[in-house]
Write a structure and sequence with these properties.
heterotrimer; B: D-Amino Acid Oxidase, Chain A, domain 2; 2 domains; 6-stranded mixed sheet; about 25% strand; C: Folate-binding fold; 4-stranded antiparallel sheet; two-stranded antiparallel sheet; binds flavin-adenine dinucleotide
Chain lengths: ~950, ~425, ~100
């Protein structure tokens, strides 16, 4: 690489010369210092070309050095799309530019630049689709040409916790206005956090005022004042990525996100310098003046050897002086303004022997071979209309062009916060018009450019925020003057040979905008979508403002009328692992979880719960395990953990009446100590839940719900209790109790020795409910029969549930007790013909279709869904849930749940449940059938995988123990 | 290089004609006013002009062409719905979309990527099978596949899902596609204009005139227009329009958000959807990952973004693709979704004579754009609901005959 | 994250709340025609404006009414439901 551009130590530099850093770029060894960014270190080493452009693969170099462009996007083998301009250089890193074929210097795709005339705006919409059959080929070509970095499939997720934080006033931007605002608010007593995306505070003070010794002292003063305020913290390297409702701001530093809740926000993010548009304005060496100054002041790097400064404001003059101060020969100042700079900067520049060309502009940059830099600029006079007189060009030799023709407020977040902006013709900039409560702007976003005025404006904003928070503040606030006007209305110059860039990210040229407008894309959003300006990684930070000017001119309307594209989060892109944080996915475990784990349970998710699907046994298939569990229940005894069911206690004088309104059935006549099936519909008459209601006392009921509906049923019960004005109390006991269902012919013999209740059939009959103890812990016993055997469902306080479970397991040992999972339970209940809500019903099933008319007591004055069901009942019921069998002799391929019933080539129904019954040794199931084909004995055909048709027949449910004798043993 | 590009390059002059033009003045009377220059309104205009010779049509939009949800969606086109009515309808749309670039002579970047709906539980696998069976019956390519086949098609996916909710299978739908959404609107607009339809942007409808139950005209921000037929295709703005004509609907507006990453070299071919994780993702032709999640949980007429959305989305995305941690999210946005209780659209004739509705597109309506063009054109021209959309008439709510697509539409797009 | 003010627990992040839909008094059941009933079941006043709606603070189990500008997403006030003095139905400012 060429000679070093590093300067001797400079005042205020950000690098630590004591800590050298070594790395490679495109395979070549490079060095820099701690404190350098990758780009500053490379530029210091003489590497001016840092990347290739997205579409035409043109060489690109340092431009803004502020993350306002992505000319330098690197990968390092682990990370991709690294923004080299603002990423601290890492010792030992191996950087490469993204999106090249064969390396940066010899990128084979650089020929794209020669083809660019064949690739006009939106070309891809008009080609490749005839014939359509070839498009997949073209699409592959286009896709691999597009895209920037490559992913690394082995990259490990970084699980960094997120933080929450809060403050009274958040100041975004630690430049002069931001610091001044933060200090003023903190002095008024507010707790203040001031963030800045840069490595150090200072904003413009850290680069733009290098030639003004007085200004340099200001930063020290501000920082000293800030340091003396314990209620003010300044956080650098911290990006305010997005503003969200109620002053919720995403702050990202490094790989971590902090979610800041603040009571007021001061936006003091300054402004993004905007380029002049001319031919070859994108090549290495053409820089924003502020970018060159950042190189110079922060990193002590010579941006160029002999630059031309093109400007329309005082900042350009300052930049020229800056360059001169370190001995750079300035090839001249080209000032677009006919009268030049009104301030004393004019004199100072002249004193430095820099030639000034008034009323002129750069028409084109003259590239070096291979476009790797520039060697001259062609400068032409501007007439009164702002048009260039291109016949009268003057070629000035230079190796760089520093552009300082205007600024656009960094107002993205301000827009997101609901700030309304209007275009100021005086300042040629959008400035705040109205602000929502608690939102303030200061400094250049507010159109204030002079340093002393920025300090005043910051103070005003800080005090206004304090006042908004009710803190004491002076009755009259200081007021700053906007200006001076720092932005040229139209620094944009057409060249017939093109290659005048509007958007560097997307390689959008001036002529693309013109052509797109001609094609009818004549408002800012349509233009954006067609040309893709502003859609790249830097989101138009240095493209939007010029585009709006171009469109305004084409449409012969004002910039204000033309408007800006909508601002959306993020200000800069944010890594996904910072957004995701730790990745927190809670699962719920029942008290018996450790038992399940140690007994080989294979878990399934039921909402947030983990439930045993079945208990795996070595050398046995899943089916065999399930069958064994079923058989244990049918022949000995089994136990299932039902702690996940919803459990709700309803007590109070209106409890019974309430349940009658909630459920379709009757409950006021339920005897104390009894249970009853409970079916719930929504207002439209759709079945949404079922469970069991037990009466604990005259005014006390206990209801269970399905696992998945536990939270919503309780919630809706609470709402109805309020709306109906009923006198009752609801307690959500779901997590309070563990639950287990002990079922099988030996259930009583297992249970009785462990309990103080009389578990006999006469003392505690089927559908009864008792309260007592189990293994010395308080327990509720419900005799329910979902699985169709003698059974006791026992609910005990959650902290004792494992104890009770273990006691039953050991007592059951002698009877061959076996834990069973959800799969076995599904088979058992299917043998009984019981439907599962949400498996055997869908989002539109009413009770008539589900065969649950018996659970509806329509002689009540009201229940949820009643009125709708009366309407539905007036019409023919279209489908019914039926039980079916494939016949005992069936040994063919098994249908699966959701296979369809087909009749004469039409879908007429669907299997909702199916299993080979281990008890009956035949395939049985439930299915929806058309009402006219639902009669017992009706044959039908199920189409299974591969289109085979399987014959089935509607049968009577239940399949097993039709008189429920076994439940009542 | 295709010939067309050569011509572009060699001609030197930019010869492309204007795609759509705005006439100087609105006429006093049109045969039909279409409210909304989104894909749906424009497609209907195009088909009315092309298929029925009806060209005295004004399409009005308060914003710009395609500026509503047409320009905000994640452009997933598929037909693997759940109900036979839905499948027939979306299947026709996919057929039309697959030929649309040729039909409109504009490359819409319609690319078949294949569409996974992942199942993380046996309950969702059951719904997948239901969909697959209905799909296959109606000749839609769709099947349930297991983890091994998923891995083969998309090797980057972590099927253990970080151990959180392992993938147990998927509904695989090879015709699932993505397309350049904006271009669809532009193509219809251009071809409708070419046939005489007039499009007025920045023209808001502020009222609808009705006499004796018959539409007679509309009030706009640029003055009144007489018309005896009005088609409302305004998606997230539907309740404002139905209020103007005094009809009530179940439509509730809720925001749906989306986001994109920085561009990456191609690595993800398919569209991946997981309803359990509430996410979906595809990689655009430009290389960005285009991602979304479920609907915002409450009514809101706003296109604001939230941080919660992108946090939750990305968290789950990293469960499936853990190596994306260092990829950056660039931009987020939102659209206003016109939700119905059964996740099916509301289309066709209404109790008001001459007033036609095309709404209820929620989070899924972009893929219907093409078929809405043909069916709404038929419906308006004949004043009779096209047979494909008859199940979706507003009257189904009074009749309790909903078309339940929730199982196939939520998060699925 | 939005802030919602629970009348019992004060301002809390909106994640703690469940939206309960527009506040809609049930029509008089026997008197309502089938069409009126279906209208109540399915239709909503979906237009933008000030809406009175149900919200539920899940950790504490509190149902309440919020008056919200559903365009700006600004919660104007929240209060417990009072049967004696129920909220007005539909969109629009409280008189
Ligand atoms: C983030 C997001 C992702 C989505 N992803 C998908 C997806 O992947 N696949 C899918 O199929 N669907 C998806 N959708 C849904 C899909 O975008 C929409 O259903 C579809 O685009 C609706 O199209 P439209 O033409 O009906 O409405 P829009 O495109 O919204 O057009 C309606 C137009 O009406 C105009 N308008 C409104 N009021 C008035 C008035 N008073 N006067 C004049 N003009 C008016 C508006 O300005 C607008 O331009 C998604 C939606 C969102 C928000």
């Amino acid at each position: 690489m060429s000679e070093s551009k590093r300067l001797p130590p400079q005042f205020g530099e950000w690098i630590d010369r004591g800590s050298p850093v070594r790395f490679t770029f495109e395979g070549a060894a490079c060095e820099g210092f701690a404190g350098d960014t990758v780009s500053s270190a490379l530029h210091a080493g003489g590497a001016l070309m840092l990347g290739r452009s997205f579409k035409y693969h043109r060489p690109r170099g340092v431009h803004s050095l502020a993350n306002h462009d992505v000319n330098a996007m690197f990968e390092d083998g682990t990370d991709t799309n690294i923004r080299a301009d603002v990423t601290a250089v890492r010792d030992g890193a191996e950087y490469r530019a993204v999106n090249t074929v064969g390396g940066l210097a010899n990128d084979r795709l650089r020929i794209m630049d020669a083809f660019s005339r064949f690739l006009p705006v939106g070309f891809y919409y008009k080609t490749f689709h005839r014939p359509m059959s070839l498009f997949p080929f073209w699409e592959r070509q286009l896709r691999s040409a597009a895209g920037l970095g490559k992913i690394d499939g082995n990259h490990k997720r970084n699980r960094t916790p997120k933080r929450y934080d809060w403050c009274d006033v958040l100041v975004i931007g630690a430049g002069p206005s931001g610091l001044s605002a933060a200090i003023a608010a903190a002095r008024a007593g507010a707790s203040v956090v001031c963030v800045d995306e840069n490595a150090r505070p200072g904003g413009t003070l850290s680069y733009a005022y290098g030639s003004e010794p007085a200004a340099q002292g200001r930063l020290d003063e501000l920082l000293k004042a800030a340091a003396s305020l314990p209620n003010l913290s300044i956080r650098c390297n911290t990006l305010a990525a997005g503003y969200y409702a109620d002053h919720w701001v995403a702050l990202v530093d490094g790989g971590k996100m902090t979610k800041m809740r603040t009571r007021a926000v001061v936006f003091a993010q300054g402004a993004a310098e905007q380029p002049s548009v001319f031919r070859h304005n994108d090549l290495p060496g053409v820089m924003l003046a502020s970018g060159a100054q950042r190189l110079l002041r922060r990193y002590s790097v010579r941006p160029f050897e002999s630059p031309l400064v093109v400007t329309a404001n005082a900042d350009g003059y300052r930049a020229a002086l800056d360059f001169a101060s370190i001995g750079i020969h300035v090839a001249g100042i080209v000032d677009l303004r006919p009268d030049g700079e009104p301030s004393d900067l004019d004199e100072r520049v002249k004193a430095a022997h820099i030639t000034i060309h008034h009323g002129q502009a750069v028409y084109e940059a003259v590239p070096r071979d291979g476009l790797v830099g520039i060697k001259a600029a062609v400068v032409c006079p501007l007439d009164k209309q702002g048009e260039l007189d291109t016949d009268d060009g003057l070629t000035i030799a230079c190796d760089g062009i520093a552009m300082s023709v205007g600024w656009a407020g960094a107002d993205g977040l301000l827009y997101q916060a609901g700030g309304r902006m209007k275009y100021s013709d005086e300042f040629e900039q959008f400035v705040p018009e109205t602000m929502p409560a608690g939102v303030f702007a200061a400094g250049r976003v507010n159109g204030v450019f002079a340093l002393d005025q920025k300090l005043i404006d910051g103070e005003r904003a800080g005090l206004s925020a304090a006042k908004y928070l009710g803190l004491s503040s002076p009755s009259t606030l200081p007021e700053a003057r906007r200006g001076p006007r720092s932005t040229h209305p139209y620094p944009i110059f057409y060249h017939p040979k093109g290659k005048a860039f509007i958007d560097l990210d997307e390689d959008v040229q001036l002529k693309d905008l013109v052509n797109a407008e001609t094609e009818g894309f004549d408002n800012i959003e349509l233009l954006k979508r067609y040309t893709t300006f502003g859609m790249g990684p830097s989101q138009g930070k240095i493209a939007n403002a010029n585009t709006v000017r171009v469109l305004a001119r084409l449409r012969k309307q004002s910039v204000g009328e033309t408007g800006v594209p909508t601002s959306r989060p993020f200000w800069h892109p944010v890594r996904m692992d910072a957004l995701a944080g730790r990745g927190f996915h809670p699962h719920r475990h029942t008290p018996m979880h450790s038992f399940h784990e140690s007994h080989g349970a294979v878990f399934m998710l039921a909402g947030d719960w983990q439930r045993p699907a079945y208990y795996a046994r070595p050398g046995r298939s899943r089916e065999e395990c399930i069958t064994t569990e079923v058989e244990a229940v049918r022949h000995q005894v089994g136990m299932i953990d039902v702690g996940t069911l919803g459990k709700i206690e309803i007590s109070g004088p209106d409890a019974g009446a309430f349940l009658e309104r909630i459920y379709t059935g009757r409950f006021t006549n339920l005897k104390v100590g009894s249970t009853r099936y409970a079916l719930m519909c929504d207002e439209s008459g759709v079945v949404i839940d079922d469970g069991v209601v037990a009466r604990l006392g005259e005014d006390r009921f206990y209801a269970t719900t399905t696992t998945s509906a536990a939270a919503s049923v309780y919630r809706e019960m609470q709402r109805y209790a309020i709306v109906w004005g009923m006198n009752l109390t609801l307690v959500n006991a779901t997590g309070l109790y563990g639950g287990m269902n002990l079922a099988g012919p030996f259930a009583r013999r297992v249970l009785q020795p462990l309990t103080d209740i009389d578990a006999s059939e006469t003392a505690f009959p089927y559908m009864g409910m008792r309260e007592g103890t189990l293994a010395d812990v308080p327990a509720r016993f419900l005799r329910v029969g979902f699985v169709g055997e003698l059974g006791y469902e026992v609910h005990v306080p959650a902290n004792c549930a494992k104890h009770a479970w273990d006691a039953l397991v050991s007592a059951g040992g002698a009877f061959g007790i076996r834990p069973f999972g959800v799969e076995a339970q599904r088979v058992l209940r299917l043998e009984k013909g019981h439907a599962i809500v949400s498996q055997d019903t869908d989002g539109l099933t009413n009770p008539f279709e589900a065969g649950m008319e018996w659970a509806i007591k329509d002689d009540k004055p009201f229940f949820i869904g009643q009125r709708s069901l009366r309407i539905i009942k007036k019409r023919p019921i279209a489908r019914r849930l039926v039980a079916f069998s494939l016949g005992a002799g069936y040994h063919g391929n098994m249908p699966k749940e959701c296979h369809l019933v087909i009749d004469h080539g039409k879908i007429i129904g669907r299997v909702t449940s199916i299993a080979i019954s281990p008890t009956l040794h035949e395939p049985i199931g439930l299915a929806f059938m058309p009402a006219e084909k639902a009669a017992v004995g009706t044959p039908f055909s199920i189409r299974i995988d591969d289109g085979e048709m399987v014959a089935a027949r509607v049968v009577k449910a239940p399949f097993y123990d039709p008189h429920a004798a076994r439940q009542k043993m | 290089m295709p010939l067309k590009l050569l011509k572009f390059g060699l001609s030197g002059k930019y010869a492309e004609p204007r795609m759509f033009r705005t006439p100087e003045k609105m006429r006093d009377t049109y045969d039909l006013v279409i409210i909304g220059a989104g894909g749906h309104g424009l497609a209907a205009a195009y088909h009315l002009a092309k298929d029925y010779g009806m060209t005295n049509i004004a399409v009005l939009d308060k914003g710009y062409i395609g500026g509503g949800n047409t320009g905000r969606n994640t452009a997933i086109v598929r037909s693997n719905y759940l109900t036979p009515e839905g499948v027939e309808f979306y299947k026709e749309s996919v057929r039309l979309f697959s030929q649309l670039s040729t039909e409109l002579d504009l490359n819409l970047f319609y690319t078949e990527r294949g569409h996974f709906t992942l199942a993380h539980s046996d309950a969702s696998l059951r719904t997948m099978r239901w969909r697959a069976e209905v799909n296959k019956h109606l000749d839609v390519n769709s099947e349930v596949i297991g983890p091994r086949e998923i891995s083969k098609l998309c090797p980057y996916m972590d099927l253990s899902c970080g151990g959180h909710a392992p993938v147990v299978g998927a509904l695989w739908h090879p015709p699932g596609s993505i397309i350049r959404h904006d271009a669809v609107a532009w193509g219809y607009a251009r071809e409708a204009c070419r046939r005489g339809v007039e499009i007025f942007q920045k023209t808001a409808v502020t009222g609808i005139d009705i006499v004796d139950g018959q539409v007679t005209g509309v009030q706009t921000s640029r003055g009144p227009i007489k018309a005896r037929r009005v088609l409302s295709a305004v998606a997230g703005y539907t309740p404002r329009i139905t209020k103007m004509v005094g009809i009530r609907t179940p439509i509730v507006i809720q925001p749906l958000q989306a986001c994109v990453t920085e561009p990456l070299k191609p690595w993800l071919d398919q569209i991946v959807v997981s309803a359990s994780l509430h996410i979906y993702v595809s990689q655009s032709s430009r290389g960005e990952l285009v991602m979304g999640a479920s609907l915002d949980p409450y009514e809101l007429h706003s296109e604001r973004s939230t941080l919660d959305f992108v946090e939750g989305l990305v968290d789950h995305l990293l469960d499936l693709f853990p190596f994306l941690g260092n990829v950056k999210v660039n931009r987020q946005w939102a659209g206003m979704s016109d939700m119905t209780p059964d996740y099916s659209p509301i289309m066709g004739t209404t109790p008001i004579k001459g007033f036609y509705l095309d709404t209820g597109w929620g989070t899924w309506g972009f893929k219907a754009t093409a078929v809405c063009g043909t069916t709404m054109a038929y419906t308006v021209a004949q004043d009779d609901d096209h047979h494909l959309i008859r199940p979706f008439n507003l009257s189904r709510f009074g009749d309790y005959t909903l078309v339940g697509e929730k199982g196939a539409a939520s998060v699925g797009h | 994250m939005k802030i919602m003010t629970c009348p019992i627990n004060g301002p809390r992040p909106v994640q703690e709340f469940v939206y309960g839909g527009e506040y809609r008094p049930m029509p008089d059941e026997p008197a309502a025609s089938d069409a009126q009933w279906a209208d109540y079941i399915f239709n909503r006043s979906g237009e933008p404006g000030l809406s009175r709606e149900w919200w539920y603070h899940a950790p504490s189990g509190t149902w309440f009414i919020a008056e919200r500008d559903n365009v700006k997403d600004v919660v104007l006030k929240t209060y417990l439901f009072d049967r004696a003095n129920p909220p007005r139905a539909g969109k629009g400012a409280t008189p």
